[in-house]
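Can anyone check this?
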Amino acid sequence: MLAMLTALAGVAMTGPARLETIGLFSGAVRLFAQTEVEQQQAGQDTTQWQGSLAGYLLQIAAAGQHPHLAAALADQPQPARDDPGRDPARDQPVFDRAVTRILTGLLPPVQPPRYEPPTAPGYLAWCLP
């Protein structure tokens, strides 16, 4: 936790917000690790597990009682790899994609440094004809 607090030291967040961010991030990483361990204990590889989960979710969605799940599963655009509109994140492993989304959602947006024009007397005098 100390390393994470050090990494967040320069971020414009309150102390409690930093601790919450660390807790949420740690929980997400633990969930991924726990899922992988359970897959291995069940003798499944990631592809098998994803296939069985997808089949289960499709079965639930097809029953018609969960329209929002059905809509989310139906919204799976498959643009060509050379399509300039393709989301490059789709080519990343699920863990990388999820961690990026989590961090993007938890951390405040980075603000570019604000430009302050020089205020020295005569500064503009040499710039003007």
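Reply from J.R.: I decoded it. The mean pLDDT is 80.
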